Amino acid sequence: MIYLDSAATTLQKPAAVRYAVSEAMRTMSSPGRGGYESAMLAADTVLDCRMALADLFCVRELEQVIFTSSATHGLNIAIRSLVKPGDRVVISGYEHNAVWRPLWGIGADIRVAASPLFRPEDAVAAFQKALPGAKAAVCCQVSNVFGYILPVEQIAALCRREGVPLIVDASQAAGSVGLDFEKLGCAFAAMPGHKGLMGPQGTGVLLCRDGDVEPLFYGGTGSVSQQAEMPAFLPDRLEPGTHNVPGIAGLLAGVRWLQGRTCAAVLDHERQLLEDFSQRLAGLDRVRLFKAEDPACQAGVLSVQLEGMDCEEAAEALAGRGIAVRAGLHCAPLAHETAGTLEQGTVRFSFSPFNTFQEVAAAAEAVGDILA
């Protein structure tokens, strides 16, 4: 199988990740629940992972790094900490359902700062127009559908000027497109562990500016056990229950693997694959590519449409040829509405550090065979 669906989950992991998960299951118990060897080993692993993530994302205090079960989990914490029913919230036109649905569920007044695909200057202008009077803003760093890198630095600056707290969804960016949390000045940044960070499913990270947050879950933390209310301090306030120690151990191995290569090197490799693949597809009739003219506007994700063919049908035909991709709306109907692809959806090819140019050539050949 040629796996080109890393925007959903990086199936191909460093060997160290699989080993770390297995070893954690064999040797570690629960952190903060005892002073014996397996509990202390678990506590050290959780601390080491928190430190590695703080280093990767330029987070000043370790307590600001929160472990979650997914980016969706983290986004729900962030949104429910900032937004009350009726509050006006500005979001980009490329947000995932992990943003749209929680806001809708709360009853927020959602204002979409829509702008054309791969036009960062228009995205800034749209936010500038929509932000006055808003209680919060949400912006993805990279569109999961199109790989479009939104101008979050400029949007964050606008939010600071207007006094509007910003939530950044870094789900498609973490591990390739850099994020400096301290410099960005956003209130929260959420990301999964199982995509670009190379960790296992069931892991995620939420970066918090301060401790004024509302927990989604309540329970034991191993700290201040005598009081009924949740601890007021981070990370305990947002990490009730037993940590996913095997998952965190695997995430640590993934982050360390990334640190040895750098996110910039990963992004460069994925962009080279995207460029090679798009050039091969450009030579085929009946293929529409959603590709930025400026390579700096796009990460390693390419959406396409095949003329006269349903996108789900195309993905099924590719799967029959050993090519794993995703088709449809990718849990982001708002992005498709903004880009004008809501009716048909797209076939999405997403690359990882483990993909090769030979795989890209084979995938392009398969697309040509299907069209023929």
Description of the molecule:
- The chain has a 7-stranded mixed beta sheet with strand order 2-8-7-6-5-3-4, with helices on both faces.
- It has helices at residues 15-27, 37-56, 71-82, 97-106, 120-130, 152-162, 181-184, 245-261, 263-282, 311-320, 333-339, 357-371, and strands spanning 2-3, 65-68, 88-92, 109-113, 136-140, 166-169, 188-192, 204-208, 287-290, 301-306, 323-324, 326-328, 346-350.
- 40% of the residues lie in helices and 15% in strands.
- The chain contains 12 helices and 13 strands.
- The two termini are 22 Å apart.
Task: Tell me briefly what this model is.
The chain has 372 residues and is of the alpha/beta class. The chain has helices at residues 15-27, 37-56, 71-82, 97-106, 120-130, 152-162, 181-184, 245-261, 263-282, 311-320, 333-339, 357-371, and strands at residues 2-3, 65-68, 88-92, 109-113, 136-140, 166-169, 188-192, 204-208, 287-290, 301-306, 323-324, 326-328, 346-350.
Under the CATH scheme, which architecture of the largest domain would be assigned? 3-Layer(aba) Sandwich
Main sheet attributes: strand count, strand direction, barrel closure = 7 strands, mixed
Strand content: 5-15%
Main β-sheet, spatial strand arrangement: 2-8-7-6-5-3-4
Supply the CATH superfamily name of the largest domain: Type I PLP-dependent aspartate aminotransferase-like (Major domain)
Order of helices and strands: EHHEHEHEHEHEHEEHHEEHEEHEH
The total strand number stands at 13
| Helical residue percent band | 40-55%
Low-confidence stretches: none
Overall outline: globular
Briefly note the CATH topology name of the largest domain. Answer: Aspartate Aminotransferase, domain 2
